[in-house]
């Protein structure tokens, strides 16, 4: 049976494709406070601003390309069983070739109903308009897990982590919960590697490669 490699990715891997992250900009995301564009209260207060913000992010994503780290992780599937659990809302893992991706914080290329959370639509890179509704007549919103909302894929992600033979953490500071808690779901016998150029939160027994995602993943593969 193939070893199961579970990869937990964060904003750092997407940053190397040119997508900005709010944690690198003093709590601002493209000059917007997260509290103005990434909370349910923000959407209730100013839905037009929130929709415009995510429409812009979607257009930015369309022009971005998967980088070497995305492609190297996808290529692992030829030799291993690979599951990617990402905190990112972009589709770069899928476009890079990964077939098993869990999005903890939602997906930018989807929209969902504001009243019926089971109604989710693939919209690609097009805009969501104010007044655009789901099949039951409720306004559509980005399919994003905003601050203060539950993370519906967390339990599934925890189940996947528990089956890991290797845990690779790429481009995340491990400071955003509940996603950061997934590292504690792995069996004590499982090797953990953290790839991040900064100072990620301490993970006992983890090997740390303080490099960017592309360079770090390539180095890790040489030792696999």
TrEMBL record:
Q: Which residues bind substrate?
A: 54, 57
Which SUPFAM superfamilies does this one have? DHS-like NAD/FAD-binding domain
Q: Which PROSITE patterns match?
A: SIRTUIN
Stored InterPro entries: DHS-like_NAD/FAD-binding_dom, NAD-dep_sirtuin_deacylases, Sirtuin, Sirtuin_cat_small_dom_sf, Sirtuin_class_III, Ssirtuin_cat_dom
One family name in Pfam for this protein: SIR2
Reaction equations catalysed: N(6)-acetyl-L-lysyl-[protein] + NAD(+) + H2O = 2''-O-acetyl-ADP-D-ribose + nicotinamide + L-lysyl-[protein]; N(6)-succinyl-L-lysyl-[protein] + NAD(+) + H2O = 2''-O-succinyl-ADP-D-ribose + nicotinamide + L-lysyl-[protein]
Q: Which residues form the Deacetylase sirtuin-type domain?
A: 1-224
Q: List, from the UniProt record, the residues annotated as the active site of this protein.
A: 105
Q: EC?
A: 2.3.1.286
**UniProt-listed Gene3D superfamilies:** SIR2/SIRT2 'Small Domain, TPP-binding domain
Q: Where in the cell is it found?
A: Cytoplasm
Q: Which residues bind NAD(+)?
A: 10-29, 87-90, 171-173, 213
Q: Which UniProt keywords apply?
A: Cytoplasm, NAD, Transferase
Q: Per the record, what about its domains?
A: 2 residues (Tyr-54 and Arg-57) present in a large hydrophobic pocket are probably involved in substrate specificity. They are important for desuccinylation activity, but dispensable for deacetylation activity.
Protein family membership: Belongs to the sirtuin family. Class III subfamily.
Q: What does this protein do?
A: NAD-dependent lysine deacetylase and desuccinylase that specifically removes acetyl and succinyl groups on target proteins. Modulates the activities of several proteins which are inactive in their acylated form.
Record-given protein name: NAD-dependent protein deacylase
- State the organism named in the record: Marinobacter salinisoli
Source organism phylogeny: Bacteria, Pseudomonadati, Pseudomonadota, Gammaproteobacteria, Pseudomonadales
The encoding gene:
cobB
């Amino acid at each position: 049976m193939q070893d199961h490699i579970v990869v937990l990715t964060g904003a750092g891997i997407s940053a190397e494709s040119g997508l900005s992250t709010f944690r690198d900009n003093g709590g601002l995301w493209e000059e917007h406070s997260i509290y103005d564009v990434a909370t349910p209260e923000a959407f209730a207060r100013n839905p037009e601003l929130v929709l415009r913000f995510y429409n812009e992010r979607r257009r930015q994503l369309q022009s971005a390309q998967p980088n070497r780290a995305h492609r190297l992780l996808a290529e692992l599937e030829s030799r291993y069983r690979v599951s990617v659990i990402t905190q990112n809302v972009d589709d770069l893992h899928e476009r890079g070739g990964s077939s098993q991706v869990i999005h903890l914080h939602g997906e930018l290329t989807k929209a969902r109903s504001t009243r019926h959370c089971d109604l989710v639509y693939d919209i690609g890179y097009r805009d969501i308009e104010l007044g655009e509704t789901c099949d039951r007549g409720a306004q559509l919103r980005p399919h994003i897990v905003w601050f203060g909302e539950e993370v519906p894929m967390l339990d599934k992600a925890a189940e996947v982590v528990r089956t890991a033979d290797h845990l690779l953490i790429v481009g995340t500071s491990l400071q955003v919960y509940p996603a950061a808690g997934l590292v504690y779901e792995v069996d004590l016998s499982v090797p953990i590697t953290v790839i991040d150029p900064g100072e990620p939160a301490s993970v006992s027994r983890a090997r740390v490669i303080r490099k960017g995602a592309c360079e770090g993943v390539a180095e890790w593969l040489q030792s696999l």
